[in-house]
Write a sequence for this structure.
């Protein structure tokens, strides 16, 4: 199978269909609560400290943090659809969260303006060109206050290599089937995803990719961006349920400081 990836695939894939294909993670309130339990513990900031949820999608982590009393939370994501969805949910719950549509490589946010920055949910490594991924780390460092904490949620490379599935499928609801064909090439996982509906036929056929990082590689990148005090939380989320969770099955979080 040929895997042809548009370098800008990430600009188009995160829409209403994405919320169907990845609903078991990104729309699972219990999963989000567990992740935010860890986030609060790792960040150890008071409720007034400004937090940036970078590449935050519809803001599921930010919304849960706001529910728990954090008063200064910002979400930045490129997807207009997810930003609008997050704004709507926050408004329905009377939560004061700032949602910004922007590019994580150049957020245009003020320097040293956040006590904490986080990139959760496997939202890093979307560029085959490594220098573009590096720009996101450097931008995270720029907007973080001195002494601030940066959390980076990544697929566990060891698990991915040991449990690689070239073909998988799962259903969501009663009518949607998601089939994925994958290949690994030089630490990049390519995935061709086909989403079909029993009533409407093919909803989407697209190809995307994500880089899979070793501890050594991501350490080098973080140090290169200026971060220090790098620590790993392995088995951050270990999905034991049956089904295909792809790179979201077993993840690690890298915590570092400015």
């Amino acid at each position: 199978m040929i895997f042809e990836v548009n370098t800008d695939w990430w600009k188009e894939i995160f829409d209403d269909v994405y919320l169907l294909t990845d609903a078991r993670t990104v729309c699972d309130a219990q999963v989000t609560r567990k992740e935010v339990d860890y986030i609060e513990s790792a960040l150890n900031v008071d409720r007034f400290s400004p937090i940036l949820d970078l590449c935050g999608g519809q803001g599921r982590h930010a919304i849960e943090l706001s529910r728990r009393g954090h008063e200064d939370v910002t979400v930045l994501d490129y997807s207009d659809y997810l930003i609008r969805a997050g704004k709507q949910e926050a408004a329905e719950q009377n939560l004061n969260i700032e949602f910004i549509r922007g590019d994580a490589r150049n957020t245009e946010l003020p320097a040293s303006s956040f006590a904490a920055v986080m990139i959760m949910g496997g939202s890093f490594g979307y560029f085959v060109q490594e220098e573009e991924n590096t720009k996101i780390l450097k931008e995270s460092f720029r907007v973080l206050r001195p002494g601030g904490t940066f959390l980076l949620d990544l697929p566990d490379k060891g698990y991915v290599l040991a449990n690689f599935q070239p073909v998988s499928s799962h259903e969501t609801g009663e009518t949607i089937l998601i089939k994925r064909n994958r290949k690994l090439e030089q630490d990049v996982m390519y995935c061709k995803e086909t989403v079909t509906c029993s009533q409407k036929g093919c909803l989407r056929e697209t190809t995307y990719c994500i880089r899979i990082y070793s501890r050594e590689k991501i350490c080098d990148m973080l140090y290169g961006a200026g971060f220090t005090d790098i620590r790993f939380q392995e088995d951050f989320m270990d999905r034991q349920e049956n089904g295909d969770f792809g790179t979201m099955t077993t993840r690690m979080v890298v915590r570092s400081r400015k």
